[in-house]
TrEMBL record:
Belongs to the peptidase C12 family. Keywords: Hydrolase, Protease, Thiol protease, Ubl conjugation pathway. It holds the Pfam family UCH_C. This is Ubiquitin carboxyl-terminal hydrolase. It comes from Lojkania enalia. One of its GO terms (molecular function) is cysteine-type deubiquitinase activity. PROSITE patterns: UCH_DOMAIN. The record marks D180 as: Important for enzyme activity. PANTHER family: UBIQUITIN CARBOXYL-TERMINAL HYDROLASE, UBIQUITIN CARBOXYL-TERMINAL HYDROLASE ISOZYME L5.
């Protein structure tokens, strides 16, 4: 059995560079801020969307989905894998889109070999193969946020945790499919060509969101599209191309920060501050501590005057 899978963020920059590292070419992810077909159309070539939502724990599986219908036969004609492990559903969702767009998209050698290897497997075995893929797992984990205090590979969700889940939607064989590894089969939402996808996916997403209370706003939607720099070059739009290149640079910087462990840096910084205080002469350190306590007391007193509860400082 392979090692564990760490949690990754639902972030366009994370997903874009993750698939690039897997060998996928000329594809990126864009976060959508509205549920409008026009926003999807403006992105050019659209391969699918990935939806993140709070998973309703304790909900029993039904013989029929709440929306759409199970298409058991479709699992033989498209790529669909059961989710067999925790924390991998984001990568599984993006792979579900890309492997069903092989031909439209250059998915690279690693994913193409994986697709061919698992082609005749049932969904459960495909899920196991994905879970045990060292290449995909290592790329996935390389985009996890560094934390010296939490071992995500050993963490098990409890009933008190908020659990979030990724699922993919894409048009395959002129049908709109929901690909959720926690379901027994792909869910069909009816006929849908690639060109109709922007119009037909929005009502499906709206119906899913309407299952939640109006106060629930923790949703995230990412579109899987052709690299937007390609269209900018084709149109000769230098301003758009520059904006896309700047966005890529920002994504690279953010991904580098995610992977970096700052504990050592903070420790050295604190040691430097303490050393500087001690070098100021005898009693400087004690004065520094007392000054800090006095400032904390003052903040606590100011909060009490404003009617804000706070802890007493001894």
């Amino acid at each position: 059995m392979s090692g564990g899978w760490n949690t990754i963020e639902s972030d366009a920059g994370v997903f874009t560079y993750l698939i690039e590292k897997l060998g996928v070419k000329d594809v990126q992810f864009e976060e959508l801020l509205t549920l409008e077909p026009d926003e999807l159309r403006q992105l050019g070539k659209l391969y699918g969307v990935i939806f993140l939502f709070k998973y309703p724990t304790g909900e029993a599986r039904s013989d029929t989905p709440k929306d759409g219908s199970y298409d058991y036969e479709a699992a033989n004609n498209l790529f669909f894998a059961a989710q067999t492990i925790q924390n991998a559903c984001g990568t599984q969702a993006l792979i579900s889109v890309l492997l069903n767009k092989d031909g439209e998209v250059d998915i690279g050698k690693e994913l193409r070999d994986f697709k061919e290897f698992t082609g005749d497997f049932p969904p459960e075995f495909r899920g196991d193969a994905l879970s045990n893929s060292d290449v995909i797992r290592e790329v996935h984990n390389s985009f996890a946020r560094s934390s010296p205090f939490i071992d995500e590979t050993q963490r098990t969700a409890t009933e008190d945790d908020d659990i979030y889940h990724f699922i993919a939607y894409t048009s395959v064989n002129n049908n709109l499919y929901e690909l959720d590894g926690l379901q027994p089969a792909p869910i069909s939402h009816g006929s849908c060509t690639v060109h109709e996808f922007p119009d037909k996916i929005i009502p499906v997403l709206q119906r899913r969101i309407e299952r939640y209370p109006p106060t629930e706003i923790r949703f995230n939607l990412l579109a899987c599209v052709q690299d937007l720099r390609i269209r900018a070059r084709e149109l000769g739009d230098e301003e758009a191309l520059e904006a896309e290149e700047q966005k890529r640079n920002e994504w690279l910087w953010e991904n580098a920060l995610r992977r970096h462990n700052f504990v050592g840096f903070v420790g050295e910084l604190l040691k430097g501050v303490v050393k500087d205080r001690l070098s100021q002469g005898e009693g400087a350190y004690d004065k520094w501590v007392e000054d800090a306590k006095a400032k904390t007391r003052k903040r606590a007193e100011d909060k009490k005057k404003q009617g804000i509860p706070g802890d007493d400082i001894d």
